[in-house]
Specification:
heterodimer, A: alpha/beta, Rossmann fold, Ubiquitin-like (UB roll), de novo design (two linked rop proteins), 3 domains, four-stranded parallel β-sheet, 41% helix, B: alpha+beta, Arc Repressor Mutant, subunit A, elongated, NuoE_dom (chain B), oxidoreductase (chain B), inorganic cation transmembrane transporter activity (chain B), 2Fe-2S (chain B), 2 iron, 2 sulfur cluster binding (chain B)
């Protein structure tokens, strides 16, 4: 199986980040086409393409754009969410460093579609190389008249500002990102109102992921029909997957949606590191339920197949875990991440994530009891399903509970009172 | 007030004040300017920033923002700030051993700064380089696919 490179076709060229090179490979053609169209025609094309947001939630992009109210006097804003931070996820960083113009082009198209004259590129503060690459590209685009006043004589004005976050994972959540851009703590906001109605500076706002914007120029250039025929019916197109963990060739791969997970691991990533047997895979970033090696055999990389396996594609991060890995330790480290990143607004998350982390630490140290394990499961029920403003505590549950359920024997083996604990056979493992 | 931005920061600050529809947005980039000058953000600098942005922005608001975000150092760090990613993907590729090695080479524990003020070592959460693990961030740069040998070479190259 080969990759199907649409977004990443030129990523390995040393000049991929330069405007001149980008133009030589049909860069900004999609934008030029879009500028000839009416805004609603652009929205229709993106809707027809079936493109779903590549940030994690998978919401249809065209539909998101269509929620922006048309005839209100307030300014409208468009934001690129480049605050990539989900453990396992590192695909956007590549696009930012190597293909910044593709993102800018997508943002201009999106801005035109929703009538925004100002946009922000919100990038995680650690990505210094990406910040430089993007700022350089923004400056080049201004100089060439792809940004600023009267873009390419179309009468459309669009200004783009780069804004660096400051190390808070929660700012990847769109309302927390908006608060951060407004110079506040990154606290998620209650929805509704949704950003499309009241977002940045209380104005209508669209927030899309880096990969989503990177896809848009190709759809405008080659058409909705071309795009919707790639992939599966409900998951059209290609997608970038960032593979980490125990494979021979970790990295970012662009594949057609619907590709079997094992093909990605065995063919593209060269199989398991040191040829250890596969133990488990987390298919969509740390917050999604883990798959056992057995489940991996039937899982395909698309929204439908993942749903059938009771997990998700999430942020496109495939974490491959080999036999011999201590899952109690990895689960503890995920929980520690969520405890560290909880913004502290909602009690179930603020207390829950820390409590779960502490209990897992106890178990990891061999000091935990079967009651502690039960307490984690009981706590997790109070941390999910809308008890909090945003889904960060749900994400913590997603990283912890399915692993305990599917690999319970490993956790029990570390319990202090393991003699009393139900035997692996009795618990059905 | 005694603290003042240097001329370069002053110029950048004025530009920032024109960039956003609401001047509150200047708090985050303003804190970066402070940190660039001093290496960390302190109360004096934050009070200065609040006053420069002007009402209704107060020291409390700037302080509240600075303490929320991990990239603003609230106290001085060494000349080289070594941040080791210890989240699961990095752990699975041996970040704990790299951390041990760095600490033993420098003779300090995680969270400490060497006596000469040269190195500070910290373990941090995901730096978004999971496929190139184990890795560290030193000041602005990422160093990936580390081995003990690469770490030795890297530490030697920093003076």
């Amino acid at each position: 199986m080969a990759e199907m490179k649409i977004l990443t076709k030129y990523i390995d060229d040393p000049r991929s980040n330069e405007l001149e090179f980008y133009e030589s490979v049909h860069g900004y053609d999609g934008m030029k086409k879009a500028l000839q169209l009416k805004p609603e025609e652009i929205v229709d094309i993106v809707k027809k393409s079936g493109l779903r947001g590549r940030g994690g939630a998978g919401f249809p992009t065209g539909m998101k754009w269509s929620f922006i109210p048309k005839d209100i006097p307030k300014p409208k804003y468009i934001i690129c969410n480049a605050d990539e931070g989900e453990p396992g996820t590192f695909k956007d960083r590549k696009l930012i460093e190597k293909l910044p113009h593709q993102i800018i082009e997508g943002m201009v198209i999106g801005a035109r579609a929703i009538g925004a004259n100002k946009g922000f590129f919100y990038i995680r503060g650690e990505f210094n190389k990406g910040i430089d690459s993007m700022q350089k590209a923004i400056d080049e685009a201004y100089a060439k008249g792809y940004l600023g006043k009267d873009i390419q004589g179309s009468g459309f004005d669009f200004d783009l500002v780069l804004y660096a976050g400051a190390g808070a994972y929660i700012c990847g959540e769109e309302t927390a990102l908006i608060n951060s851009l407004e110079g506040r703590r990154g606290h998620p906001r209650l929805k509704p109102p949704f950003p499309a109605v009241s977002g940045l500076y209380r104005c209508p706002t669209v927030v899309n992921n880096v990969e989503t914007f990177s896809t848009v120029p190709h759809i405008l250039d080659k058409g909705a029909d071309w795009y919707s025929k790639i992939g599966t019916e409900k998951s059209p197109g290609t997608r970038l997957f960032s593979v980490s963990g125990h494979v021979k060739r970790p990295g970012v791969y662009e594949i057609v949606l619907g590709t079997p997970l094992m093909e990605l691991i065995n063919d593209l990533c060269g199989g398991m590191l040191d040829d250890v047997p596969l133990k488990a895979v987390i298919p969509g970033g740390s917050s999604v339920p883990i798959l056992t090696a057995e489940e991996c055999k039937t899982a395909n990389m698309d929204f439908e197949s993942m749903a059938a396996h009771k997990t998700m594609l999430g942020s496109g991060a495939v974490i491959v875990i080999g036999e011999g890995t201590d899952l109690v330790e990895t689960t503890y480290r995920f929980a520690r991440f969520y405890a560290h990143e909880s913004c502290g607004q909602c009690t179930p998350c603020r207390e829950g994530t820390h409590w779960v982390r502490d209990l897992l630490h106890k178990i990891r140290e061999g000091e935990g009891t079967s009651e502690d394990l039960e307490l984690i499961l009981s706590l997790s029920r109070n941390m999910e399903g809308g008890t909090t403003i945003c889904p960060l505590s749900d994400a913590c549950v997603g990283a912890v509970r399915p692993t305990i359920q599917k690999f319970r024997h490993e956790f029990e083996a570390k319990l202090k009172d393991r003699a009393k604990a139900p035997s692996p056979v009795a618990s059905g493992v | 007030m005694s603290y003042r931005f240097n001329p370069d920061s002053e110029k950048r600050f004025s530009k920032l004040m024109e960039m956003f529809p609401d001047k509150r947005s200047v708090i985050l980039p303003g804190l970066y300017l402070l940190q660039k000058e001093k290496g960390y953000v302190d109360r004096e600098g934050m009070a200065y920033l609040a006053e420069k942005i002007g009402p209704p922005i107060s020291l409390a608001q700037v302080y509240g923002v600075a303490t929320f975000y991990t990239l603003y150092n609230k106290k001085p760090v060494g000349k080289y700030h070594i941040q080791i990613c210890g989240t699961s993907s990095c752990y699975m590729r041996g970040s704990d051993k790299i951390e041990e090695h760095i600490c033993s080479e420098l003779g300090i524990k995680t969270g400490q700064t060497t006596k000469d003020g040269k190195f500070t070592v910290e373990e941090v959460e995901c730096l978004g380089a999971c496929g190139y693990a184990p890795m560290v961030q030193i000041n602005d740069a990422y160093y990936e696919n580390l081995t003990n040998e690469k770490v030795d070479e890297l530490l030697r190259s920093l003076d």
